[in-house]
Amino acid sequence: MIRKVLIANRGEIAVRIIRACAEMEIRSVAIYSEADRFALHVKKADEAYCIGSEELDGYLNPHRIVNLAVETGCDAVHPGYGFLSENPELAAACAARGIVFIGPDADTIRRMGDKTVARKMMQRADVPVTPGSEGNVESLDVALKEAERIGYPVMLKATSGGGGRGIRRCDSPEDLRRNYERVISETTKAFGSAEVFLEKCIERPRHIEVQVLGDHHGNIVHLYERDCSIQRRNQKLIEIAPSPQLTPEQREQVGQLAVRAARAANYRNAGTVEFLLSDQGEFYFMEMNTRIQVEHTITEEISGFDIVQKQIRIANGEPLPFTQEDVKISGYAMQFRVNAEDPKNGFLPSYGRITRYYAPGGPGVRIDTAIYTGYEIPPYYDSLCAKVIVRGRTWAELLARGRRVLGDMAISGVRTTIPFYREILDHPDFIAGRFDTGFLQDHPELLNYSLKRSHDDAALAVAAAIAAHVGL
Ligand code: ADP
Ligand code: ADP
Ligand code: MG
């Protein structure tokens, strides 16, 4: 029985996991770097331990983390997303010390973390994959030959990439020559691996991914899809569940493909199977993420399941207490990744002190964040500062709620992506539910919003009035 969990993460996801534990009467143990002394996850956990003065090293040291879990009497470790969540060493170190890793086993993580291995596994299981190179490409010459065979444009991708990094579109052999060394050096730095492969570039694709759950008793179900096509540089900004762009038949089809993929991987715990949907209506497997995802929230909102609690129960050995037929979704949900970035300045990170924070409320709203008034966003970690999740019975209600909630939210002290999201919500193509992964690139005018409008916001005025009243 899991009674005490060490959370090997920080920020909003650490807080999210602490909340899941609290509802299950499981004790939570936080870890933190010196830079995170005043972080919310440290205050919210039942216990917290500093794992070093370095900003990153402690969060990235599997052995130190597992030692601490043993010393503090934890029986499980939850990795969250990012950091060590897809590093097989943490899962292996847990297993070696008799600590439950809340996620799939090290072998599954290793196999699915290698995109070419995962692709081969899917081909064997009859899950369509994007046409591409046979495994990794060993040299520029091989890459050029393979690209000729696949046909331009191609995507040059890091085999162990993630977070949208290490991906370049190449429209010609010259492009491929230019990008080859660049991608290799980028992926070596970011992922410690120089392996790359090629995929056919799918034109105007939609990014459709499916949440799956697998237990230790052979049961695998899906919780329907998320549409993550609103991206900038291959990174998700807005996610929607279910996709407003699928027919009911396509919804069934992609759900079944995801279950087939998870079954082929003998998958246990929560995971996500990512697909591209071409403008011809074909789904192509892209990769599987073997962890909780940033956007799991919207699936929780439409399905009613607490996915983090499901992860803990599955790790505990409990069978899924329902079947696919029992999974019902209702309405729509949308998540905005509120990043501390300045959209008008090339999305430059905007770290610093949050001088005022006013959180929206009312029907259909959920805010997952670790910020508070007076909190200083450290420059060492990613720039996600809040996830704003809205829910509505219909697409129209969802859009109206999104506008209202983003207008209701105030963050001062740092620039955020909020005003940019308001522009997206007002765009006719977005309103019509027509967008692909090129949407933001095709609409640079979305950046022409007036800062005046956002500064004059009613929300900021309310926050300022409150601050003045309490003498902040
Ligand atoms: P999601 O797929 O859940 O939307 P993202 O791709 O946005 O997640 O990644 C979540 C976090 O994990 C980000 O901070 C990202 O930089 C990090 N990340 C994802 N994959 C990797 C990886 N292979 N190596 C290092 N960091 C990663
Ligand atoms: P990561 O591991 O960084 O999440 P993915 O393989 O999931 O990388 O790809 C991230 C994004 O890059 C996709 O959502 C999509 O927008 C784009 N992309 C990746 N592969 C292709 C492809 N073959 N054709 C078109 N777009 C692609
Ligand atoms: Mg991906």
Automatic annotation (TrEMBL):
<dbReference type="InterPro" id="IPR016185">
    <property type="entry name" value="PreATP-grasp_dom_sf"/>
</dbReference>
<dbReference type="InterPro" id="IPR004549">
    <property type="entry name" value="Acetyl_CoA_COase_biotin_COase"/>
</dbReference>
<keyword id="KW-0067">ATP-binding</keyword>
<protein>
    <recommendedName>
        <fullName>Biotin carboxylase</fullName>
    </recommendedName>
</protein>
<feature type="domain" description="ATP-grasp">
    <location>
        <begin position="119"/>
        <end position="316"/>
    </location>
</feature>
<dbReference type="InterPro" id="IPR011761">
    <property type="entry name" value="ATP-grasp"/>
</dbReference>
<dbReference type="InterPro" id="IPR005479">
    <property type="entry name" value="CPAse_ATP-bd"/>
</dbReference>
<dbReference type="InterPro" id="IPR011764">
    <property type="entry name" value="Biotin_carboxylation_dom"/>
</dbReference>
<dbReference type="InterPro" id="IPR051602">
    <property type="entry name" value="ACC_Biotin_Carboxylase"/>
</dbReference>
<keyword id="KW-0460">Magnesium</keyword>
<keyword id="KW-0436">Ligase</keyword>
<dbReference type="InterPro" id="IPR005482">
    <property type="entry name" value="Biotin_COase_C"/>
</dbReference>
<dbReference type="Pfam" id="PF02785">
    <property type="entry name" value="Biotin_carb_C"/>
</dbReference>
<dbReference type="Pfam" id="PF02786">
    <property type="entry name" value="CPSase_L_D2"/>
</dbReference>
<dbReference type="InterPro" id="IPR005481">
    <property type="entry name" value="BC-like_N"/>
</dbReference>
<dbReference type="GO" id="GO:0034029">
    <property type="term" value="F:2-oxoglutarate carboxylase activity"/>
</dbReference>
<keyword id="KW-0547">Nucleotide-binding</keyword>
<dbReference type="InterPro" id="IPR011054">
    <property type="entry name" value="Rudment_hybrid_motif"/>
</dbReference>
<dbReference type="Pfam" id="PF00289">
    <property type="entry name" value="Biotin_carb_N"/>
</dbReference>
<feature type="domain" description="Biotin carboxylation">
    <location>
        <begin position="1"/>
        <end position="445"/>
    </location>
</feature>
